[in-house]
Amino acid sequence: MKLTRYNNLESQYPTTFSSMLDKFFNDSIGQNVRQFTPAVDISEDQDKYDIQVSVPGMKKEDFKLELLDGKLTISGERKMEEKKEGKNFHSVETHYGSFSRSFYLPEDVDQQNISAKYEDGLLKVALQKSEKNISKATIEVK
After folding, report:
1. Rounded to two decimals, what is the model's pTM?
2. Is 49 exposed, middle or buried (0-12, 13-18, 19+ CB in 10 A)?
3. CB–CB of 130/105 below 8 Å?
4. Are 105 and 127 contacting, i.e. CB atoms less than 8 angstroms apart?
5. How far apart are CA 37 and CA 98, in angstroms?
6. What does DSSP assign to residue 19?
7. For 97-138, what is each residue's pLDDT tens digit?
8. Helix, strand, coil: what percent of the chain each, to 5?
9. For 138, what's the count of Cα atoms within 13 Å in the CB-facing half-sphere?
């Protein structure tokens, strides 16, 4: 089983015309909280899976990692600095606001041995693999 990304498509792509109109008006009128989706790289080696989330300009306290029923959710919020004295912004391309990314974990991940570290704008999550349990049984036919 591979490490797969969890996507809630209804929130990104409405399935009905009514939900499309709701999304358009709710997202474009009077909404102060923005959301963005940071880039994620996933790799695997013999001992572990690595997830790297590209979120520069944050602090390690800004992240929340939760593991529930085999689904790892990484969330956080990047806030725009409020000090605007003497600054006139001509362009702001950096994404600010909250984000949430979820991933279903493979069965071979040791859920008690997950670590996370934030450095150089990357949140690095290491998911150690557990040793494969090979069980063998003889079944008696009656």
Report:
1. 0.66
2. buried
3. no
4. yes
5. 9
6. H
7. 899 999 999 989 998 999 999 999 999 999 999 877 666 677
8. 15, 40, 45
9. 1
On whether the CB atoms of residues 80 and 62 are closer than 8 A, the answer is no
Only one residue has tokens 């069980």, namely: 135
Residues 6+ apart with CB under 8 A from 106: 1, 2, 3, 49
**Residue of 6, 22, 26 lying closest to 14 (CA atoms):** 22
> What residue has token string 């349990």?
133
Strands (E), the chain: 4-6, 40-44, 48-54, 63-68, 71-78, 97-104, 109-119, 122-129
Cβ–Cβ < 8 Å for 31, 95? no
In angstroms, rounded to a whole number, what is the distance separating the alpha carbons of residues 122 and 98? 16
From the list 44, 51, 45, 49, the residue with the least C-alpha distance to 65 is 51
Place of tokens 């009656």: 142
Q: What is the DSSP letter of 35?
A: B
Q: Could you read off the pLDDT of 57-80 as tens digits, one per residue?
A: 889 999 999 999 999 999 998 877
Shortest CA distance to 107 belongs to which of 122, 127, 90, 87?
A: 127
